[in-house]
Write a structure and sequence with these properties.
mainly beta; single chain; about 120 residues; six-stranded mixed sheet
Length: about 120
């Protein structure tokens, strides 16, 4: 059974940093590209970042480029999202998803990130 469990969210002030983690189980983690999505209140879910199975060729959407870094540790079956210089517009629920197709068939329950003074 595929399981993706996000952690690391919380309340942070503008300009602050958070590191999200996603623990994966129930499948061969190093065989799949992985994705981070986010969904703000009242808005559709949007792709934030993606990374290949081999931890190469990271992709970022324009609104996080230069501030967020996606990475993975295949030995630990864990996906990460380092978020720096956070802005109020980054407030959302962040989801870790397996990236074999669109829409992704497997995502975690999400972790809340709130950026506020």
């Amino acid at each position: 059974q595929v399981q993706l469990v996000e952690s690391g969210g919380g309340l942070v002030q503008p300009g602050g940093s958070l590191r999200l983690s996603c623990a994966a189980s129930g499948f061969t983690f190093n065989s799949y590209a992985m994705l981070w999505y986010r969904q703000a209140p009242g808005k559709e879910r949007k792709l934030v970042a993606a990374i290949t199975s081999a931890n190469t060729m990271p992709y970022y959407t324009d609104f996080v480029k230069g501030r967020f870094t996606i990475s993975r540790d295949n030995a630990k079956n864990t996906l990460y999202l380092q978020m720096n210089n956070l802005e109020s517009e980054d407030t959302a629920v962040y989801y870790c998803c397996r990236g074999e197709s669109y829409p992704p068939p497997y995502c975690g329950q999400g972790t809340q990130v709130t950026v506020s003074p």
